[in-house]
Structures are given as C-alpha cells and as structure tokens.
Write a structure and sequence with these properties.
Helices cover about 40% and strands about 20% of the residues. By secondary structure, it is an alpha+beta fold. The structure holds phenylalanine (PHE). Phenylalanine (PHE) binds next to β9 and β10.
C-alpha cells in the first residue's frame, strides 16, 4: 500500500460522495467507501501487518483519508437533507389559487334565538340573568312558593320525582329560581331566569314532558301592578311587534296575589283580531317574600313566567312543538 494508492482511494470516495444525488445514493457511497469491505477499511485493518517502518506513515495517511471521507459524507448529508426538505415543503405548500374547502357554518337553535332576544329585552331594562338547578327540592319548587301539600299542582301524576324520593323532583317551573335568589340577596332584585322544566305530559303537537320557560322577578320598594303591566307591554311589543296590545285577565297562581294571565293581541287566520295567552304573572305573594327572608312590609314585587317554546312556535310559525326537539337539520337549517 502506497501513498498514491491512498490518495486514489480518497479521490474516488470524495468524487462519488459529491456526485450522490439522493440520500439513498449517498448511503450506498458511504457503505462502499467506509464500510467494512471498503479499500479504506481494509487499508486501516492491514496496518498492523505492515513492516514497522511503514506503519506510521501509512497509518497517518489512512487516518487523514478517513477523516476527509467522513467530513465529505457529513457535508453532503446536510446538503441533501436540506434539498429534500425544501422539495417536501414545496410539495405540501398551500396552493392559494385552488378553491377553498367548504366550511359549513352552524347556527343557533330557534329556541336559543328566541331566548336570547327575550333576555336582551330584559337586560336592557336592568334585569340580570339567573339560573337554578333542574333537580329541585319539593320545598323550593312548591312549599316556598306558597303551594302547600295537597295542592293539585303537586299531584304526583304531574311531576317527575327523582330516586323515588317525594322531596326530590325535576322542577316543574322556573319559579324556584325566584326562591333561591330571594334567599340569597335583598332587594332591589331584577332577574330573568330561562331554563328547562319537566312535567309528566304526553308528547303531542303542543306538549312535551320537557320544555322551556323564562321567569322574571322584580322586587323593590313601591312596585305595583302598573309596573308589571308596563313591563309586559314593553316586553311583548319588543318581542312580537310594536302593534301588539296586552290584556291582563284574572287568574290564579299560588305564589302571586293578585295573579293574571297575560294575553297578547294577534290576527287569527281568518284575519280577525284575537288574544293569545302567553304568560302567567302577578304580584309576589307576601307569604313568598317572607318565607325567603324579605320584609314584605317594606318591599313588593312582581313575577312573570312564559313558555319559550310556545313563543318560538308563534315567532317562527312552527305548527308542531316536536320539530324543535328532533334535531332534524332540514328543519333547523331554515333558522340559520
Ligand atoms: N310558574 C308558573 C307556571 O309555570 C308561571 C308564573 C310565573 C306565574 C311567575 C306567575 C308568576 O305556570
């Protein structure tokens, strides 16, 4: 083995490494020129068998050649990797001239839309939004609302009890939110509480065992029936049109006294003016104020509650309540 031989080996290795056009070709060159069978490896392995006076010279030259080849391999690897990455990036780059992927927009459920409109009207009047549990105690849902044991509203045939306990039920109305709020805070109280309620009704076009209500409560000094009426008139005109009139008809609710049915004018399908019953309301019974720790000598209040689904049906001209709960996109897309 002579120096010119080593120079030759190195020369060929470097040339092939530089000529490698892909990482695969480079790997082949690496095996050929630094692998165990390569001339360079064999030279290095043979040093021990050389005459002692040659070992130093050849060993040094062979090691230099090996370092040069390794250096060339490292450099070319980096170059090829950078090239391949660049090519990959170019391949995957977004072509901004292609048409975009369609991205369907969702929309709010019609009942949510109506709820938000109702909330907005009352928020603008200074009310705040409140909330309560759907699993209620008998006390919050009935007793504190002046609905004593034996009252027909408490009939087990109307109420879903939970875990077979007579004191645990799905709320049948949003009115228990009134109780929870009045227990927690002192007047002035102005709140609106939308939510789901449950009654043991059979499902048909206008009934569902699960439906939505919105409760309103105002407790302050000096509130009268006139405030209730003005609030209801404003509320329904904002919601259903400024031409609406309202009619308060005497009614009964255990927790309000006096109580009224709020009827709203509309034009029926024969073009005749008629009335639609859209809310229950009344002046909060002093018994209810007292059972919640509010001084009924100093404060008065009014409350109202209406069915959200019913109003959404009127609002959107939907003839069957069930459509709202079936989640059929063909129906829901019409409100997007
Ligand atoms: N909670 C009553 C119902 O479900 C409605 C109502 C609310 C009546 C507030 C008066 C005051 O029928």
């Amino acid at each position: 083995m002579t120096d010119p031989d080593l120079a030759n080996i190195q020369e060929r290795a470097l040339a092939e490494i530089r000529a490698a056009a892909t990482l695969a070709e480079l790997e082949a060159a690496r095996v050929a020129h630094t692998g165990r069978r390569s001339p360079l490896a064999e030279t290095l392995a043979g040093i021990g068998g050389l005459p002692p006076d040659r070992r130093g010279v050849v060993g040094k030259a062979a090691n230099l050649a090996r370092r040069a080849v390794e250096q060339a391999l490292a450099t070319r690897t980096e170059e090829l990797e950078a090239e391949e990455m660049g090519a990959a990036l170019e391949r995957d780059a977004t072509d901004v001239t292609l048409p975009g992927d369609p991205h369907p927009l969702g929309a709010l459920h019609p009942i949510t839309q109506v709820r938000q409109e109702m909330e907005d009207i009352l928020l603008a009047l200074g009310y705040r939004i409140s909330d309560g549990p759907e699993v209620e105690t008998e006390w919050h849902n009935f007793t504190a609302l002046n609905t004593p044991a034996g009252h027909p509203a408490r009939s087990p045939s109307d109420t879903f009890f939970v875990d077979g306990r007579p004191d645990r039920m799905l709320r049948t109305q949003t009115s228990p939110v009134q109780v929870r709020e009045m227990q927690q805070s002192q007047p002035p109280i102005y709140l609106v509480a939308p939510g789901v309620v449950y009654r043991r009704d059979d499902i048909d076009a206008t009934h569902s065992p699960m439906f939505h209500q919105m409760e309103g409560l105002a407790v302050d000094e000096g509130l009268t029936m006139a405030h209730l009426k003005g609030t209801m008139l404003h509320f329904f005109r904002e919601l259903l049109g400024s031409e609406r009139e309202i009619l308060l008809q005497p009614h009964f609710f255990p927790f309000t006294e006096p109580s009224v049915d709020v009827q709203v004018s509309y034009i029926d399908k024969n073009g005749r003016p008629a009335w639609l019953e859209l809310a229950g309301a009344g002046m909060v019974d002093p018994n209810v104020l007292e059972s919640c720790g509010i001084d009924s000598e100093r404060y008065t209040g009014f409350a109202f509650g209406c069915g959200l689904d019913r109003i959404a049906m009127i609002r959107f001209g939907v003839p069957d309540l069930r459509l709202f709960f079936e989640n059929d996109l063909r129906f829901l897309e019409q409100f997007a």
